[in-house]
Amino acid sequence: MWIEDLPNGKYKYCERYTDTKGKLRKVSVTLDKNSSRAQNEASRLLYNKIDAKLEKEKQKIEDEKNKITSITFWKVQDDFLAVYNDTVKARTVTARISAKNKIREIIPEETLLTELTSNYILSILEKIYYVDNYSYPYMILIKSNISMVLDYAISKGYIENNPSSKVKIKKKVETFEQRQAKKDKYLELDELKDVLKQLRIIDKPTALIVEFMALTGLRYGECVALQCKNINDETIEITGSFDPITHSKTTPKNIHSERTIALSNQAKKILDERIELNIKMNINDGNPENFIFVNRSNQPEYIENVNSRLGKIKSDKKLTTHIFRHTHIAMLTEVGIPLKAIMERVGHTNPNTTLSIYSHVTDKMSKNIVEKLNKIDL
Q1: How far, CA to CA in Å, does 252 sit from each of 20, 88, 92, 103, 243?
Q2: What is the CA radius of gyration of the chain?
Q3: Could you tell me if 165 and 188 lie in one domain?
Q4: Which of 219, 63, 220, 80 has the alpha carbon at shortest distance from 144?
Q5: Where in the numbering of this chain does the Tyr recombinase domain appear (predicted)?
Q6: Are 78 and 208 members of one domain?
Q7: Which one of 143, 270, 293, 315 has the fewest beta carbons within 10 angstroms of its own beta carbon?
């Protein structure tokens, strides 16, 4: 304790103490005298003040702790999505809401945030993957969504660590059907020709879209977002993607999706044919954005319509727009294009999808080598 003389003749008794956060604080009392009795009284008052302040701080910490421990996972999830949804595209928001609904089928509303331990999360994911037989990627999607909410909880000071980071799920042994499904991710050349033949009868403009995707490897959204200004003599510029939720052109999937793609002669013919068709149908008169692959309402063709027409085609494989992007990867692999060059052309950052097709095609090519060698008579 120390004493300061005040201009009014009184005395200020001061003392320092360390608060609950480790910071040095100061308290003081003012008395009329500077006697031994006054000093004892000041000391008593100061330490009472310090005790009161420390007790108040401890109570505040306890109240905050009780408040945090009473927060439910659902509450934090809602708070997170309210912030997160403003930072991503509408299509991603839809996907996150779908994941949120699935998570809420598994995690009850009254579940506290602090109850999400590593064991709790592990039991959830094991049930999804091993018991309910959802796919491994879907299980990882659910884990990722839970993890993002927990990371948000850390940033808010609710928890210190993310328990999902310790959770590991081993992949099940791959079945014959799953291996076959990898093959079914793309079309062989004769299968592609048959699909295009059938589709030209069903709807010629849709056949042009599908063939163009197979020749360029574009995602569907990138394909229908193409505008006349994106076409150069020998290349096209991928500058965006068509969002089926907002029905508008948005930025592409990621920074690697912005790319320049060289066109084959057939791909250039398709663009010329489609632009000429738009002129004949007077589509571009009501299409100020000059989108190329449009419907009769002058809007980029909706993916639902294309998938519906694909559903009318007789094929042993499940046909969606994405199979033609994979078909392009397979065709590039068969003609010997290196994996890295394929990834750059299709805008892949994660090699897993490319590799799943690349590896299967190269296995098939190896078998073809043996078959050809067997035919050589020395």
Answers
A1: 50, 12, 12, 28, 10
A2: 33
A3: no
A4: 80
A5: 182-371
A6: no
A7: 315
Q: What is the spatial distance between Cα 67 and Cα 70, in angstroms, rounded to a whole number?
A: 5
CATH number, domain containing residue 232 = 1.10.443.10
Range(s) of the domain holding residue 58: 2-69
Residue in 96, 143, 219, 328 annotated catalytic: 219
* Dihedral-angle region of residue 122 (phi above 0 means left; psi in -120 to 50 means alpha; beta otherwise): alpha
Whole-angstrom Cα distance, residue 300 to residue 304? 12
Q: Mark whether 312 is an active-site residue.
A: no
Residue at 99: amino acid letter: A
How many other β-carbons are positioned within 10 Å of the β-carbon of residue 188? 16
Q: Among residues 96, 143, 185, 249, which one is catalytic?
A: 249
How far apart CA 178 and CA 223 sit, in angstroms, is 29
Let me know if 325 is a catalytic residue: yes
Is 326 a known active-site residue?
no
322 labelled catalytic:
yes
To the query of whether residue 249 is one of the catalytic residues in this protein, the response is yes
